[in-house]
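dumping this here before i forget
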Amino acid sequence: MRSTTSGLAPDTGLTIGTLAAAAGVNVETIRFYQRRGLLPEPERPSGSVRRYGPADLARVRFVKSAQRSGFSLDEVAQLLQLEDGTRCSEAREIALHRLLDVRQRLADLQRIEAALAALVARCAGGRGRVACPLIASLQEAV
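structure:
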């Protein structure tokens, strides 16, 4: 794959270490993104090191930002294919799917919270007993 740094002279641009530091990731993250096809790997000029440009830095930051928003790397790859902005409805569908998944996980977490709160309350009410109500409840659930 060709990098977006093709207009730069071989001695300009960012090394992989500098790119990683600027993006707030480690070098292995950059290499992982390249293996996943999320970031193009620039050509290595003969006898030199690969150099990355501002577009590469922006792309790594985009990937990290999308991950922080809950998108999987597969979804990030889909979004990157839509980055020209002309297929906004497709990007919206990906985001809608992610939103529905987040809402489902929140509902699951709320159910877990209620169950744990009830178990903790049973523990507080079970003082002086030999058997722990929390452990007994969990054993009953099995």
